[in-house]
Amino acid sequence: MVLLVGIILVLMIRNGRVKWGPALVAILFGFLLASSNVAPDIQDFLDSAAEALADINP
Fold first, then answer.
1. pTM higher than 0.70, yes or no?
2. pLDDT score of 31
3. Which of 11, 26, 40, 43 is at a distance of 20 to 30 A from 32, taking alpha carbons?
4. In this predicted structure, what is the pLDDT of residue 58?
5. Low-confidence ranges of the chain (pLDDT < 50)
6. How far, in Å, CA of 22 to CA of 51, rounded?
7. What's the confidence (pLDDT) of residue 37?
8. Distance between CA 7 and CA 13 in Å, rounded?
9. What is residue 51's predicted lDDT score, i.e. its pLDDT?
């Protein structure tokens, strides 16, 4: 998941949709958020969302 989001961020920077300053702030915010008390709740939510998407039958 981290790799996918990283690739999307790099593509958005290269296409000019996001400038380097706001991208750096977003990256730093992600690092700070990962070390906070809400990180396990966010991880649980992402895991639940991934399971829900995997359970959808095409």
1. no
2. 87
3. 11
4. 67
5. none
6. 31
7. 92
8. 10
9. 93
- The pLDDT value given to residue 47: 92
Cα separation, 34 vs 11, whole angstroms = 23
How far apart are the C-alpha atoms of 29 and 20, rounded to whole Å? 14
The total of other beta-carbon atoms located within 10 Å of residue 20's CB is: 8
At 30, which amino acid appears? G
Chain centroid offset of residue 8 CA: 9
Q: Are 12 and 18 in contact (CB under 8 A)?
A: yes
As a three-state string, the secondary structure of the chain is CHHHHHHHHHHHHHCCCCCHHHHHHHHHHHHHHHCCCCHHHHHHHHHHHHHHHHHCCC
Q: Are 2 and 19 in contact (CB under 8 A)?
A: no
